[in-house]
Structure formats: structure tokens, C-alpha cells
Predict the 3D structure of the following.
Amino acid sequence: MSENKAKPDRNWARQVWKVVCDIPPGHVLTYGEVARLSGMPRAARRVSQAMRWAPRSMKVPWHRVINAQGKISIPADSPWHKKQKQMLQEEGVVFLRGKVDLDKYGYQGAVDRLLWGGPVGE
DNA sequence: GGGCTGACCTACT
DNA sequence: CAGTAGGCCAGCC
């Protein structure tokens, strides 16, 4: 209870990190989905900011968060862009033409897989 | 107190 | 499929 001395502004970011930490390995979530799961459907932009503030001590899988286009939103200028792509590939995510198939690795695809309890190609 | 920025999204052309 | 326009909201100057 003493570590929570951060300003209330950063409090919303905490919820975002919590949702991101809930993303299963081998799956990705879009900023809009994460924002909606965090309770702020219009906060897609806020999520991006939260990723930037995500401290390493939290081990937040920020690399599992991508944009609605299924592509990495980090500018190629940043070394993290290359890092994220490698991280996802390590998790089992496949990049097609530089994009990720949200139909398979997206949240909706994850639920479908859990309900059907089988591989995606069906 | 006001205005610009941004790891975005959705919709239309 | 690619490009453009509008919206949305917190952080920073």
C-alpha cells in the first residue's frame, strides 16, 4: 500500500498493464481491444502511452499489443520495433507480409480456439 | 487557462 | 488494397 504513491493519472495505466499481462502467450491484442477490456473503449491511444510507460519490473508483455492493422505500431526508428517482432515469433506468432493474422492470433480467435478446443485451420 | 501531440480506431473514397 | 478525414482523451508546454 505504500508503493501506490503514484499520481491518480497513472492509475488508469495500471489497469491497462493488468489486462496486457492477462494476454496468453502466442496471442496478440489490439490497442482498441485492450482499451475496451480495461474499461475505456475510446482509450486506444492511452493504451499506447501506457505501453511506453510500462516498466520492465512489471514484465508487461507489451510486445503482444499491436494495432488494428495487425502490424507493429512502433516506428522502425525504434529498436523495440525489431525486438517486438522477434518476441512474438518466439511466442509462436507468425508474421505474414509483415502483418499478424488477427483472425488466428487475435482475441476473438483465441476465444474461438478455446470453445472449439482445437487448432485454427478448421 | 489554452493548445498541440500521440506505440490509435473507424469509416469513407 | 491504399490513402484521407474526423474523433477521442490524457499528458505536456
In short: The first helix of chain A runs from residue 11 to 21.
